[in-house]
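Possible regression after last week's pipeline update?

I re-ran a chain I had predicted before the update to compare outputs. Posting the input and the new output here so someone can diff against the archived version. Not blocking, just want to make sure nothing changed silently.
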Amino acid sequence: MGASNSKTPSQTTIAPQSTTPTPPKIARTRTARRPRSQTDQTKETNAAFYLQQPLDIVVLGASGDLAKKKTYPSLYELFANGFLPSTCRIWGYARSNYAIEDFQARIRPYLEKSNDADADKINAFLSICVYHQGTGYDHVPSWDALAIKIATTVGSNRMFYFALPTGQFGPAGKAIATAKGMMVEETGNTNGNWNRFVIEKPFGRDTETSEALAQELTSLFQEHQLYRIDHYLGKGMVQNILSLRLNNIFFSKLWNRESVASVTISWKENIGTMGRGVSKWFVPCCCVCWCWRTGVVL
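New output (post-update):
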């Protein structure tokens, strides 16, 4: 019997293929940096020039609740991060009778709550905070006396922060504009010194009162000198949630009983008025939270 020509086939082991797809390689490209424009260079030059100029900041209403809880801690943050000139001085102006040491002790606890709280920085900041007692915010002789103290720094910029009730904006501004030497002369000033007025609180309760207040202030100061801060702009939305929903097609489709389980208004301030005047101007800060049927809280 002849030998068989059949051959045993060779067995090849094939590795199982992975079911996990290999992620494609993403080509990483270096983002081109935007070239610095002439405007950027001008801003940097002006910022460097500003830090070299003396600065006097006058906080009107320095003994009030807003000043100790918000204004001075914010100024400390700027100081701690090197955003205030080394020759800066902060003048507190109010009617309360405080020695400088007592006034500094009053605001120190609120500085210590800062994220940049540092004992040495706080002491250095308090050393530039002084206090001046005036008879009233509309009392011109009181502003004359403060102007004499500020005049010891030659060629300083002046910034006035109005942490006052709205009704005091006009009278205080008129007294500042009338007091001799309280404002620096901007016209023809070769050093480029300036005056700035920061208006804090609601800027009127409606269109008419806002326009009247704007007219009163612009009759005393130039428009480029005025900075307005109104932290009640959300008040209208909170008071008109229903109108906001019905007058917007997007919201009306989404804000209904099929999607929203509840609406919660949270009062973020857990404090009382604590010396602040209670009037129709005062509305605590709040936020609106929508609880959706899915359980997600926004």
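Follow-up from reviewer: compared with the archived run. The chain has two domains: 44-229, 235-292. Marking as no regression found.
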